[in-house]
Amino acid sequence: MQKQQVDNLIICPKCGTPHLANAKYCTKCGYIFVSPHKKIKKETTAAKSQAIEKKSASINQTSAAAIENITKSIDKKIVCPRCTSSFSSQLKRCPKCGFKIK
């Protein structure tokens, strides 16, 4: 799966959670985003491609509300104790290193 980018946000293809564009991990489910600079070694089959497109379409329908919610929550930030990255206090994991916040 590849990450879907909407302006400065990406939507997790596994759970649909929106994240900042530089996130490497999903803060909700822990999904590791594929960097656009890395090449995917295995090509997806037509069935996988169709499944990805179908899921992307459903995510696009709900992403507007999710994007609005995450941009509102960006004001409240915490600092990751592992990598010192600053991110929203509503997230369960650091978007940079994946550290789980209690």
Describe the structure.
The structure is a single chain. By secondary structure, the protein is of the alpha+beta class. The chain has one domain. 27% of the residues lie in helices and 15% in strands. The chain has one helix at residues 46-73; strands spanning 4-6, 9-11, 18-20, 77-79, 86-88. The strands form two sheets. The protein has a three-stranded antiparallel sheet with strand order 1-2-3. A two-stranded antiparallel ribbon has the order 4-5. The longest helix is centred in the middle third of the chain and has 28 residues, at 46-73.
Name a few traits of the molecule.
alpha+beta; two-stranded antiparallel ribbon; three-stranded antiparallel beta sheet; 102 residues; globular
What is the H-and-E element order?
Answer: EEEHEE
Compute the separation of the termini in Å: 28 Å
Low-confidence stretches: none
> How many beta-strand segments?
5
Beta-strand percent range? 5-15%
Overall tally of structural domains: 1
Radius of gyration: 14 Å
Topology:
Layout: E1 4-6, E2 9-11, E3 18-20, H1 46-73, E4 77-79, E5 86-88
Antiparallel strand pairs: 1-2, 2-3, 4-5
